[in-house]
Design a protein that fits this description.
By secondary structure, the protein is of the alpha/beta class. It has 22 helices and 17 strands. Strands 1-2-4-3-5-6-7-8 form an eight-stranded mixed beta sheet, with helices on both faces. It has a seven-stranded parallel beta sheet with strand order 11-10-9-12-14-15-17, with helices on both faces. Strand 14, helix 17 and strand 15 form a beta-alpha-beta unit. It binds nicotinamide-adenine-dinucleotide.
């Protein structure tokens, strides 16, 4: 097995011969991808394909893995010093005289930290992107500081990581790991990866896996105990470092990277809601972050400092918001923009959508576009989805926000009024979920859908039968879809705001009254919402938070939280409240 479209060659490094694959134009900046354990260079095939248009991409099988030969004897043949020799031999062969951008995953990242912190590689590395693999030196200091100065929290972190490291102890036992990998474990590994990590397909892992895993056990035996026991005191990175941390990693706690700034002065942090094997499960996001980071270093630009607690998570993600021309939709688009996302602002009003896109760029969006579509129009939504797919990619986050207000008794609400509110508030959400949800599922790289419902979804009201019904349906749709998409790594959230000061009162329909009275009611409602004065920005912040925490239902505003509690625990009171006629 090899990487599709790659040119392969062999590079001698001391006692071994390394299998090196290259893609892209050698005149472009060189990005060297180093694989982990148990793995071979093919783990990078998806990421490499995405990078090869802009970079000279180089992958190699670590000694003893894939097409590279193993040292003899094995003991002592896998030390970090020997692995550094290998890296330098590859770098000299593929990019003589020009430093390379190093990217490592798992043990490739453990090695990468060594390369990026030892003196003899100075001038040969331009940047380092680390994924799921700490420096053994930093790890040693991390353990020591927790053993010497324990607090309950630090002790819990130590115990948590010790439990996650069970396989490291197992790999130190003689012979058994080799027997397991060359026997049943090796045969079952593809199945385990598929079930546990949702990794698979396209000839990955390769046929060499059992042998890679058996020989690679020496990576641990030759290095872990020695380094953790006496970590280097001067393991400072001499290059800019980008750290990508998957938050659901079964092997590594995110706390391992607490205080990493003391070792890497020029550090950019990223987080992903994903498991360990992100080069396979999140190639779009990983390739995007590598590209952005490498280009910033090449251009001698510092990556823009994105503000807010969500910048690590949403930088470069594609976020589509409907109804983005005003109120909650605009505030949400701008909150994602501030976090460095790429934003598609959709509204039926072309002018306000365009304004939001401009504001999003000013707020820090990596890119921002405006699109015009009426969410209730199925054909228009299909065209939107096709265009977004072709021009911007598959959204990582979809916010179905567009909605309209309708107030009045059931008996004065015409069928036409019902159709309009259900078409926009419910079918708009259905079209968004169906079209973009299908693309997210097909891409297989996770994602999140946020549907903006309302507190009216759980608080009945004699004056809101059509609006509340549409929003209750959105809430139930979100719950059902959440259950359906959970297995595909796609989260679904219903956000339920109470009274938020937006332009919704200016466009809401009031039934059963003439035009003059309707105008008066709108103005009165607007005044009332103004006095309440709950800002749309707080709803936006709840939306980002809900995505990060993968929350199912999020009531926003105290009255929405109260209404939710009342509907659950005091339904009688909720029903009595429903009878109160609003006075506007
Ligand atoms: P808003 O009127 O300020 O903004 C709504 C935006 O959606 C506008 O830009 C409008 O042009 C757009 N829009 C309306 N219909 C559309 C359609 N068919 N296709 C595309 N775009 C369309 O209102 P808002 O308060 O920001 O409301 C946003 C969402 O929040 C709505 O779903 C609303 O029901 C919900 N909500 C609002 C409140 C509140 O108090 N403001 C409370 C609970 C829920």
């Amino acid at each position: 097995m090899t990487v599709a479209g790659a040119r392969e060659r062999r590079v001698r490094a001391g006692d071994v011969e390394l299998c090196v694959a290259e893609l892209g134009d050698p005149a472009h900046p060189t990005v060297v991808l180093v694989h982990g354990y148990p793995d071979s260079k093919e783990v990078w095939s998806e990421v490499a394909a995405r990078l090869s248009g802009r970079f000279h991409v180089v992958l190699y099988d670590v000694r003893g893995h894939g097409g590279s030969t193993a040292p003899s004897p094995l003991r002592g043949g896998f030390t970090l010093e020997r692995l550094t020799d290998d890296f330098l031999a590859v770098a000299d062969a593929v990019s003589p005289g020009r430093p390379v951008h190093l990217v490592g995953h798992d043990w490739g990242s453990v090695q990468g930290w060594e390369f990026a912190t030892v003196v003899r590689t100075r001038g040969r590395i331009a940047s380092f992107t680390s994924m799921s693999g700490p420096s053994l030196d930093h790890f040693g200091h991390w353990i020591n500081s927790r053993v010497r100065r324990p607090t309950p929290r630090r002790a819990a972190q130590l115990l948590g990581q010790s439990a996650k490291s069970w396989y490291v102890y197992a790999l130190h036992t003689p012979v058994l790991p080799e027997l397991a990998w060359r026997g049943p474990l090796g045969r079952r590994w593809p199945h385990i990866l598929r079930r546990r990590e949702k990794v698979g397909g396209d000839g990955y892992p390769t046929a060499s896996l059992p042998s890679d895993a058996a020989l690679g056990a020496w990576l641990y035996r030759d290095n872990v105990r020695a380094r953790l026991g006496s970590p280097r005191p001067d393991a400072f990175a001499h290059v800019p470092v980008q750290l990508i941390t998957p938050l659901d990693d079964a092997f590594l706690s995110e706390h391992l990277y607490d205080g990493l700034e003391q070792w890497a002065a020029r550090l950019t942090r990223r987080t992903l809601d994903a498991k360990h094997w992100i080069p396979r499960t999140r190639p779009d996001q990983v390739a995007y972050w590598i590209t952005e980071f490498v280009e910033s270093v090449e251009g001698d630009r510092v990556l823009p400092v994105r503000s807010g607690p969500h910048a690590q998570r949403f930088g470069g993600q594609l976020v589509l918001v409907t109804g983005a021309g005003s109120g909650i939709g605009r505030a949400t688009a701008l909150a994602f923009a501030k976090a460095g996302a790429r934003v598609v602002a959709v509204d039926r009003d072309a002018e306000t959508a365009a304004e939001t896109a401009v504001l999003a760029r000013e707020a820090g969006a990596a890119e921002a576009w405006a699109e015009t579509a009426d969410v209730s129009d199925e054909r228009a939504m299909e065209q939107l989805a096709a265009k977004v797919d072709a021009e911007y990619g598959t959204p990582d986050v979809l916010v179905n926000n567009a909605g309209i207000g309708l107030s009045g008794s059931f008996l004065t609400t015409s069928t036409e009024d019902w159709r309009r509110v259900v078409d926009v508030n419910l079918f708009g959400v259905i079209h968004g979920c169906r079209l973009f949800g299908a693309r997210m599922a097909e891409r297989g790289q996770g994602g999140h859908i946020v549907n903006i419902a309302s507190a009216a979804a759980f608080q009945p009201s004699r004056a809101l039968s059509a609006y509340a019904t549409s929003k209750a349906a959105v809430l139930m749709l979100s719950e059902c879809l959440r259950a359906e998409l959970a297995g595909r790594g796609i989260g679904v959230t219903a956000v339920c705001p109470g009274i938020v000061n937006t332009g919704i009162t200016g466009t809401a329909r009031f039934t059963g009254v003439d035009a003059v009275e309707e105008r008066r009611l709108r103005m009165s409602a607007a005044r009332w919402y103004g006095v309440r004065n709950y800002p749309a920005e707080k709803v936006a912040s709840a939306v980002l938070d809900a995505v990060v925490r993968d929350r199912a239902v999020v009531p926003v505003t105290p009255e929405a939280r109260g209404a939710r509690l009342m509907s659950r625990w005091m339904p009688g009171a909720s029903r009595r409240l429903a009878r109160v006629e609003p006075r506007l």
